[in-house]
Amino acid sequence: MSEAVLTIKEVQTRTGYSRPSIYRLISEGLFPKQVALSTRKVVWRERDIDAWWAKKIGGASADDLEDLLA
Which domain holds residue 41? Predict the structure, then answer.
């Protein structure tokens, strides 16, 4: 089973946050951590970003979020 992942640019597009803001939120424990694929490549699990966004917009479920983004 493969899991969908997002690049930093995709995370920026989905959240509206800049790269520095994303990394600041990670360091503050307020945003999902990235996953290192290699020493120079990181990604985020799509499900982690979806869950974070759902919580951010008021507790909507991930399914509700998919409907909003469609």
Answer: 1-52
